[in-house]
Amino acid sequence: MLLKKITVFRALQLGDLLCAIPAMRALKNAFPQSEITLLGLPWAESFVRRFSSLFSGFRAFPGFPGLPEQGFDRNRFTRFLSEMKRNEPDLLIQLHGNGSIINPLMKMMSKGLVAGYFQPGAYCPDARLFMPYPEGIPEIKRHLKLMEFLNISPAEEDLEFPIRSEEESEYGELIRAAGLEPGNYICIHAGARHPKRRWEPEKFARVADVLAAKGYTIVLTGTLPEKETAAKVAGNMRANAIDLTGKTSLGALAALIRDAALLFSNDTGLSHIAAAMKTPSVVIFLTSEPGRWAPLNRILHRVVLPEESDNTAIALFNADEALSEQVLSIKKERIQHEL
């Protein structure tokens, strides 16, 4: 079937989009000549530029009642529907979620083919092209299952995160100024978008002190709004830390994670960047689902479950495992392969 224009609807955050990249690779491989547009949150325009090998364009989604990611403006939404009708895709894929809220909107956005997920017992726009939402599996595998359902050949499950040359230059200047040596520092990322996903700064500080005592330089990372959280971690540490919170672009931060010995973080988008870079990590889960969001490689990436999160000894045990010779040798092999 000739599909000149395909639009993928996924109006979510960084980690959500990264988990969809293997499915997007499969889609692009199946339709290499098609224009694939991401319909997402306004911030994701920069994401599309980063993944220009997979996406041809971007369209901002204006919000919809019941979706918490952004507010709803009726006038903007009306204009958006008019624009969609003027530029209808040949195929619109609902990759946003189980469809319980958004599926009634699919046919309003396009009179062409629509595909995606539906919740059994709820509205299904097209039984031929909508599959029951797969519960209880990793997010990466869920979207690959949809591609398989649509008769699209599967792609590898590995994540990726392209870094531009100017971001590599920024990173190089950053580590020179901070006196960091690749492989000899550990990134501590204590922030998270949702407050309920944030482990206590005091616990991060205790872990950071133990890791510093092993000879690693501790680097605090995060966005500018997370500066206060990083300051609390530093204020509770006995060892010195280099605070780079709010001082890096996303690409330079990804390069920083790539060359770290370890990322120790909450369940946040940065943990998926560590998975893309094959950097060992320990991810603290407090309220989100580890079975859905944890990195797939459980040798490189260790998980602290919600019921274990009160015990810093368990977190430190996982950090030791992630820094073991076996894991670090895997990382060295990855670096040599890339060279």
UniProtKB/TrEMBL annotation:
<dbReference type="InterPro" id="IPR002201">
    <property type="entry name" value="Glyco_trans_9"/>
</dbReference>
<keyword id="KW-0808">Transferase</keyword>
<dbReference type="GO" id="GO:0005829">
    <property type="term" value="C:cytosol"/>
</dbReference>
<dbReference type="GO" id="GO:0008713">
    <property type="term" value="F:ADP-heptose-lipopolysaccharide heptosyltransferase activity"/>
</dbReference>
<dbReference type="InterPro" id="IPR051199">
    <property type="entry name" value="LPS_LOS_Heptosyltrfase"/>
</dbReference>
<dbReference type="Pfam" id="PF01075">
    <property type="entry name" value="Glyco_transf_9"/>
</dbReference>
<protein>
    <submittedName>
        <fullName>ADP-heptose:LPS heptosyltransferase</fullName>
    </submittedName>
</protein>
<dbReference type="GO" id="GO:0009244">
    <property type="term" value="P:lipopolysaccharide core region biosynthetic process"/>
</dbReference>
<keyword id="KW-0328">Glycosyltransferase</keyword>
